[in-house]
Hints:
It is a single chain. This protein is an alpha/beta fold. The protein has a single domain, classed as Metal-dependent hydrolases (TIM Barrel), CATH 3.20.20. The chain has helices at about 20-30, 50, 55-70, 85-90, 95-115, 135-155, 165-180, 210-220, 245-255, 260-275, and strands at about 5-10, 35, 75-80, 120-125, 160, 185-190, 205-210, 225-230. The protein has an 8-stranded parallel sheet with strand order 1-2-3-4-5-6-7-8. Helix 4 packs across helix 5 and helix 5 packs parallel to helix 6. The structure holds zinc ion. Zinc ion binds near residues 10, 12, 37, 124 and 230. Zinc ion (ZN) binds next to loops.
Amino acid sequence: MTELPILDNHMHLRPDGKGVEAVKEFERAGGTHIMHVSLPSWNYNIDPRQTGYEPAYEKAIQLTNKAMQETDIQVYNVLGVHPAELTKWIGMGMTLEEASEMMKQGITTARKYVEENKAIAIGEVGRPHYDVKPQIMEESNKIMKHAFNQAADIDCPVQLHTESMNQQKTKQLQKTIKQTKLPENKVIQHFANPNQHQKPDNQITPSIVAFKDNLKKALKNKQNFMMETDYIDDPERPGAVLGPKTIPKRTRWLQNHTTKQKLLQIHKHTPEKIYNIQIKP
Ligand SMILES: [Zn+2]
């Protein structure tokens, strides 16, 4: 597989987890590129009520820089405010408006990092995947729209975290994206539902958690997609959601289930187009 790049489109790293060791495992398994997505602020021991989100982004970037020094993996930063932050800070006594404003500011800060070429995309942003009160959902949609608008201003991709999607919800989401200036093909659906058939008019790119069953379904149901582990580097949940070696391993397995051209689309052509980068080899 020497001439095939292997990209994990959604991986997290924690200062108190395996951190760079996880990137080394990925490298030893044959991986080449990582989209390193920032975690909710508390995973970095940062309280954004005191400091804003910048120190959390800086901690994520530190891990990326260390990984780039100690391995040959190309690691890109994806920075944003996780949708779970809204319920967290309301639970800690903030009003909906205060928490929402803080998160929007955090997303605006992420945009600045992209403008300064310190990050490649805004993410993960969006809506909680668990049941929440209608006003939380409504506010999350506003925050998500703020992210789309920030991204549109600078033509940058967005990694989206939402509840499990179906056709109707996707239609609604497409409508929301249309209300902003962000091209639909700049939106990446993290943890995409592999069972959902992607209609021709749906340009949101699915990122598929690389369980074998998911990948088989994605080959059938999606026009094009990327692969991810959503590795969360949690010392209390080692290997969750999938371990750092999974994308290289599953890519080798996929060689018996699809064509070289398809694998190049997954690991090279699709990410090159969306993130506006060059992926070698
Ligand atoms: Zn994630």
